[in-house]
Amino acid sequence: RAMELPPSLFPAARAAAVALGYLRYRRGGPGRGLQLRELRSARRQDIDDVGHKYYLELELEDVLDKDRTVSCTAEVLYHLGSKSSAPDVQLTVQGELRSTEEADKEFYTRIRSLEKELVAENIPDSHGNVPPELEPILLLAWAASGYVIWQNSTENTKFHLAQVKHVKQVKRSDEDLQFDYVVLLHEMVSQEVLPWQVTLLWHPQRGARVSQCHQEPAPG
Predict the structure, then answer these.
(1) Of 137, 142, 216, nearest in space to 182 by CA
(2) What number is the average pLDDT over the span 26-45?
(3) Which of 27, 65, 116, 147 has the fewest Cβ atoms within 10 angstroms?
């Protein structure tokens, strides 16, 4: 039997952060930035010898299209005693996410036609500003960090992307765009800010794929 949890409760919010990270990785891109508008309901089930499973109902919005929200149901299963395996996430999005085909194509063409590979740092800057031409790069970082958050979360963590410290485009011989990111993830429970190196491949037809990621030693 699953037990109702007040959505404001920390474990519910932590499970929602995992679901959002997974969704950003699977469905995010340079033209779509999904964020949580509201956690509507949460239930938890303790499954003997397996782990804890959370059932969530989320309301999401796209930062590029604030007027439109979509509902989403998610199941997040944390495996008992396992630090090494990522939570299992299953998601169903109700309704249509806005099409990003045009924006994706435009971004892809723009990046492919750059004389010099794109390099940028500190997105957003210390005042919270993101130059318009770097917004797609930040949204791709949402997808990249979404993967890291999904893979590395436990029931006792809640990660949040604080900043893109550095990003560098790497020219490839195939059709993919490659971005090497250093992202700062803020872990809200311990209050640590951890730098991660993430290599993201992206193509309009294939979406985002993380090819490698590892945590850097914390500065200092």
Answers:
(1) 216
(2) 96
(3) 116
The answer to whether 190 and 213 have CB atoms below 8 angstroms apart is: no
Write the DSSP string, 146-194. Answer: HHHHHHH--TT--EEEEEEEEEEEE--SSS-EEEEEEEEEEETTTTEEE
d(CA 182, CA 197): 5
> Which pLDDT value is given to residue 109?
97
Task: Record the tokens describing residue 145, joined without a space.
Answer: 């960090």
- Which residues, in sequence order, are CB contacts of 134 under 8 Å at separation 6+? 120, 123
Q: Are 63 and 35 in contact (CB under 8 A)?
A: yes
Verdict on whether the full-model pTM lies above 0.90: yes
Give the tens place of pLDDT for each residue, 86-137: 999 999 999 888 899 999 999 999 999 999 999 999 999 999 999 999 999 9
Q: What is the C-alpha separation between 179 and 75, in angstroms, rounded?
A: 30
Match domain 2-94 to its CATH number in 3.50.80.10, 3.30.1330.60, 3.10.450.10, 3.40.630.30.
3.10.450.10
Closest CA to 196 of 171, 219, 220: 219
Spell out the domain ranges in the chain: 2-94, 103-215
DSSP type of residue 124: S
